Amino acid sequence: MATPAFSSTPYDIGSPTSYSISAVHGAINYTWEASNNILINGSLSPLSTTSTSVAISQRPGYSGAGWVKVTAAGSQCGGSSVTKDVWVGIPEITGFSYSGGGSYPTCPHEEFIFEPVFNGYKDQPLRYRWSASNVSSHGDLTASSLIVTAAGYGGGTRMTIGLEVETTLGWTQKQQVQFEIRDCDSGAEPWFYPNPVAENELTIKVPANPDSNSTYTLLDKQGTTCAHGQLEGKEVKINTSNLREGLHLLIIEHNGKTHTRRVMIKK
Question: Which residue, among 264, 267, 266, has the nearest Cα to 146 in the 3D structure?
Answer without folding.
Answer: 264
